[in-house]
Amino acid sequence: xxxxTKKYYVxxxxxxxxxxxxxxxxxxxxxxxxxxxxxxxxTETGLIFxxxxxxxxxxxxxxxxxQDKLGLRKHLLLFVGTLLLLTGPFFIYVYAPLLQTNLVAGxxxxxxxxxLAFNAGIGALESYTERVSRIVGFEFGRARxxxxxxxxxxxxxxxxxxxxxxxINFWIASASAAVFLLLLWQVRELKPNAMAGxxxxxxxxxxxxxxxxxxxxxxxxxLVVFVLGTSIYGVFDQQFPVYFASQFATHEEGNRMYxxxxxxxxxxxxxxxxxxPLLVNRIGIKQSLLLASSVxxxxxxxxxxxxxxxxxxxxxxxxxxxxxxxxxxxxxxxxTRFDSRLSSxxxxxxxxxxxxxVAGILAPLAGLGYDRIGxxxxxxxxxxxxxxxxxxxxxxxxGETPAxxxxxxxxxxxxxxxx
Length: 419
Description:
lactose binding; transport; Growth Hormone, Chain: A; transmembrane helix
């Protein structure tokens, strides 16, 4: 790894670390916060998550097209970073009071903020990082690993801090966001012609019709079917902390132990991010996607059948296997099966946007299921849905390597930073 490549790797890895640190500090215990501090039940919490998902439906396609249009420029990331900086004041002085006085207004305002800052923001950052990684010559998964470490680092302390005062976590999130902005300021934009080595055309020539043309491609809808199943894991994880904490004698002990468990899971996930590119390159992109989806189904079935904190914890840790494989394989699938100028749009629409549609529909239904039939039975139903879409995707996803797939190579010499 040459000096310039190492510089971009370090800076972008740092951006991912502090983005996820900010997200984790403010959001890893959000369902516990809504349940124990705001006093919401499962169905009401499901409505909150549904509102976040619905708001993200508007933000994610917009973010995707804007980032594709911007190419290698940082304007959208600067906007996201500014929102991250406001996380602490927003949650403490705006979101909590609104939820306590007017649940609908709180859900709408909170959904807008969370979708713009986090749910859509992460897609913009990940797709930007993936694009730069192809230009300068490092594996995206190795940089994304630091995002997992950022989440794990914040979560490790979140349970302790929450038991002292939840607001401290929100202030820590804003402090982390300040570091994110400082690192982003250090990232020099690559010249626009740096994309010539891996894209089919100049990003500034990209038109809305190019993005809309994706809707006419059978391959796009095959990807959507796959994502319909895998996105259920987001709904599965939303209220899992409440279920896990209920396995312990007190809320405080449950909160603390969940912090440890989530931190361990994400540390393992970081190791998975480092190893996932090797596995994906070894067994193939389609096979990797199906493997990740299969592990996801096993985790949901296992959580439904498991009893006791130890077995439930073991099922939770399987997330450290499925997510790294899914993310690395998904980006490789997108950039080798479609026009890679649209990689941000495809990721934010084909994956993130569809995930939010599923979450918007299923989150309140899942909350109702938790209240009516319990967590275990609801998890079994989720597992059936993921297993079904995995089976269908065996026949729909494309397994061949297209002739026009861009070669992974460093083009740093043609992409000297703007002085």
